[in-house]
Amino acid sequence: MAVAKVPSQQFFIRGEWVAPARGGKIPIICPTTEEQIGQIPAATAEDVDAAVKAARQAFTRNNGKDWSRASGKHRAKILRAIAGKCFDYYADLAEKLDEKQYSPIEVPMEQFKSSVLRETLGVIGLITPGNYPPLMGTWKVAAALAAGCTAVLKPSEVASVTCLELGKIAQDVGLPLGALNIITGLGPEAGAPLSYHPDVDKVSFAGSYNTGRTIMKAAAETVKPVTLELGGKSPLVIFDDVDLDKAVEWAMFGALWTNGQICGATSRVLVQEGIAPAFLKKLAAWTSSIKISNPLEKDCHLGPLVNDTQYQKVKDFVKKLKTKAQLSSVVERGLLIWRKVTFWNRRFSLMSLGNKPPPGLGGAVISKDEGRCKRVAELLDAGIVWINCSQPCFCQAPWGDDPFGWYPASKL
């Protein structure tokens, strides 16, 4: 019996059928006769880029109202229509093939049942940073143990003592031996072996972007899942209807909480242009009043950075910023450190600034109009957005998924 030829094919990109950029073809071989019955187009990087751009544009078009932020009802209507067309197509195809082939086996599906069994994953490697070790350590340990997993916790070498205290508590309450294990050490000697250890089933890490990439690569050696919470440059959006004193206070707190050593610090401040001069004046006054001293001393506002390495990094950032420019309405995104204050006067420019790389783990919006705050919060590409504040954290709530945030969204 002759095998029907497959019609010429093209790519489906942005609702249109298009030919490959380089004209490449891949033959379709019939497995029965081993003869060529058609061709499909062969994609190259140019075609991939066109398809990805189309998908990204569709995701953000009309602020997402076309699809990504459309109602579930709207998406369901379209998906059901697609499903109906698929059924009609294959039902018609089956009728055409009915007298031309026999099914190899018959599978009466009513004889089978399906069930889902949730099981614990196994041993979890937990690697935490030094900016607030008790919170990060307990977050990760609690989630792992509650799920029935066992854990190995490696806190940052610059802030390990409080996490070791967690071991004493576990010992006192009678946690089964080995359910929680705590080791300390440097990343290359302790963190890396934990990441690629063949008997570790998952790795959860919070810390820098570069270290997160290293851990992801190490975990890939044994094809284990990872959860990453990485740093970014989180935006703080300030509208012109605010109480300036409160806005300045939240701007400073959002950027300098834990001495600025925090992944979600809202240090990219976007101020509506009309209030910029007054905001800067109050910001300068507030900054000059900060008392930097030993945190054990009375009235200390700002203590030291965790070590000299971090101190030198901050000095280097400040040096680079000074050599470029002062506060400006023009943002130069090539800098490792953004302008601390950026001005905008149109909503479009606000969202383009707030969502441009480097992305933020979090974000904040300050305005007396709560409805406006919620609308802007929905448009910011961030895992968590604060409204009329910055940095309050509720352990009961999930820490959201975003490009530089949790990967995937999880407390574990």
TrEMBL record:
This protein's pathway: Amine and polyamine biosynthesis; betaine biosynthesis via choline pathway; betaine from betaine aldehyde: step 1/1
Keyword NAD attached: yes
Active site: 229
MF GO annotations: aldehyde dehydrogenase (NAD+) activity
UniProt cross-references to InterPro entries, sorted A to Z: Ald_DH/histidinol_DH, Ald_DH_C, Ald_DH_CS_CYS, Ald_DH_CS_GLU, Ald_DH_N, Aldehyde_DH_dom
A matching Pfam family: Aldedh
Entry protein name: Aldehyde dehydrogenase domain-containing protein
Domain Aldehyde dehydrogenase residue range list: 17-83, 85-324, 352-395
Keywords: NAD, Oxidoreductase
